[in-house]
Amino acid sequence: MLKKLSLGYINHFIYMRYTAEIVIKLPLEVFIKTLFNPDNMKHWQEDLTSFEHVSGTPGTIGNKMLLNYTIGKRKIALMETITYTNLPHEICLSYETKGMHNIQKNTFYTTAEKNTKWVSENEFMPISFLYRMMVLLMPGAFKKQSEKYLVAFKKFAENQTSIQNA
Fold this sequence. Notes:
Helix 3 (129-137) crosses helix 4 (139-159). By secondary structure, the protein is of the alpha+beta class. The chain is globular. The protein has one domain (2-160): START domain (Alpha-D-Glucose-1,6-Bisphosphate, Chain A, domain 4), CATH 3.30.530. The chain is built from four helices and eight strands, in the order ββααββββββαα. Strand 5 and strand 6 (90-97) form a beta hairpin.
């Protein structure tokens, strides 16, 4: 599922990039409706505690949503912004939290079997010292979290298996 991982520096800033992908046994149109229904997030994002629409028109460039997570004992608030959209084939998002900037490019393909291949390209740019150390010392934690969400979404989308019932 994980395709590649790289760490590097840009203007003295550490960054991490990786790509993850998964095939969902749903046609593209059904996949998109399932993925972008905010009420479904609780079924596949285990650590999500709440979300709220902040501004913009849902599904359009500039739309902002506040996502609140509790991972272990840590509470994390992410501001998600749509930066580009060409749905049903592509959407780019940015995520801001104290100490970290994340860019995500999601591309969706129809396979020969009429399923959907989801390719997620992620770039993390830590700003705070803590996140810089996490990226350097524990890059696997970020990849593992992304893969966990992809697999959980697959289970929910294909079988209606919610993480709430696990």
